[in-house]
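Retro notes, item 3 of 5
We never archived the inputs for the adenosine monophosphate complex last cycle. Fixing that now. Sequence and ligand:
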Amino acid sequence: MKIIHTVEALREARAALSGTVALVPTMGALHAGHQTLMAQGRQLADHVIASVFVNPTQFGPNEDFNVYPRDLDADARRCEEEGVAILFAPTPDAIYPPGFATTIHVAGLTDGLCGPWRPGHFDGVATVVAKLLLIVSPDLAIFGQKDYQQLAVIRRITADLHLATKIVGAPTVREADGLAMSSRNRYLTPVSRAQATKLSQAMTRAWVAWQAGERDAAALVKLARDLVATIPDSSIDYVEVVDPDSLSDYTKQADPIPDARGAVIALAVRVAGARLIDNLRLDGPLPAPLAHHIPS
Ligand code: AMP
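Structure as it came back at the time:
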């Protein structure tokens, strides 16, 4: 596996690869969820390029950019385990050279969910992902459904800017108790880690209600929110039930949720200071770890 730090060297190494290329962009602190994306890349393309870049422009001034876990050696080992051909780990200067002045903004999809809580975040994400797609020029790029809104934003950019890369969404990888794997889970103490399982249980409650015929968005939100609210030392940014494509908030519509549209429950909660996000398709199958922990 080659580890490359500059855009020029990356372009040269990518051009030397014959066959198709899958890109897996990450911020490092890699875990089994990221590795699943890479393994999927190996199945879908001849080569996988993974990137590790803690993108400064997607963090707000009071967020965790400075303390975000960084360990390139450990990340490289995980990439190597998955047969990654190239690990692209650029410096901030390589991605944002002096004079940099272009930002990509995706309207509409970024109005709700994490958008209002993280001003500028999706502009940072949109800009860096567009850059990575233009630098690497992959045949396909794989992103996790764990970041549901991010995936929707990236699909929008790719369509709107006529980028040739195919975007693939990969299912959320969870711990045995249902907690979605996340680099930010490292911030949790054993006590808050045990409590954090209530996030997936709360979404499962809404899933059970949906399956029983509940189509009132406020009722679905309340079921989930009431359980999340029992997590000590936590604060809820949002619990929303949204349209799977437009991400519009169903509680702002008077009518019951139409079956033909389906629904996603999405939440962002600060548990002992760690901001955790998760989501679940209510009109889809319940993923295995969640099915083992259906709350009463
Ligand atoms: P990150 O570096 O954690 O911000 O995310 C890099 C990529 O990995 C994004 O496409 C995420 O959606 C994806 N990802 C993160 N956690 C998971 C997970 N638990 N399961 C699947 N994909 C994930």
